[in-house]
Amino acid sequence: MTAPPGVLAGVDIGGTLTEVVLCAADLGVIDRFAVPTPAREGGAAMVSAALDALRLLLDRTPGRLLGVGIGAAGVVDARAGRILVASDSFRGWAGFPVTAAVEEALGVPAYLDNDVNAFLRGEVARGAVVGERHVLGMTLGTGVGGALWLDGRLYDGPQGAAGEIGHVPGFGDLRCTCGGRGHLETLASGRSIATRYAERTGRTTTARGVAEAAALGDPDAFAVYEASGTAVARAILVAAGLLDVTTFVIGGGVSRAWALLEPSVRHTLTDEPPVSGRRIRVLATLLGGDAVAVGAASRARAELGPVIRV
After folding, report:
1. With b meaning 16 or more CB within 10 Å and e meaning fewer, what string describes 105-126?
2. This prediction's pTM
3. pLDDT at residue 258 above 70?
């Protein structure tokens, strides 16, 4: 009797939703399921919600689970499989041993990544930058995150925080959610886009609401997105100058308004080309909402090595 094919699971634990995908060995998505994240109920509840979603997928999909990759918001110790620091959106998440809990429940190896690192892994494996050897990935969501892919592999630095371009200063003097001032996040995150619009108009809405207003011709909404795109481009130029990286991929919820961001990004990059003289490529995510989960599965595939047959 032929054994069922091996499958990999990828899990994206976000502040609002947890998405789980089952992938074939080539990382093609076989099935997916999303559930609300019980972010205020603690680490055990969050992992339990992800496991319930995964078991549902396994029940309806023939396959033998080989391993699980998890992409999680916050600062993580990828080697120990533990959350180090989490935002105030989560309760009981910092310090939680994620991979140990998953391995105990499922009996297969599990691997943890920061969600932005997982996003970049996904885009390199199956998305907008397949096969690239040097890439900076940036996610524009509730906050702004970054990750580096150098010489064909993820580079997370000695403290696990390489590529975190969202909290680099030099973008004005506005107070950031982290307590610092003038960080990229103060202009380019979804939360800051909504705040900057409210400051200009007195109207409270979301980044999506600002995008909808811009599409209808609201000059204040357009100006907020223009400033955001300019800031993103300047951050790209800093990274290009420091690292000689000229390929960038942008994801996260704010990137859905790429049509509003892109003109000011392109204009700034044209006006201030990198010192290397090489053309900078800026690409929007190809995997969209699947990127983190697929990237997490990609990490599992890389770690399992010979066990996986493509």
Report:
1. bbebbbbbbbbbbbbbbbbbbb
2. 0.92
3. yes
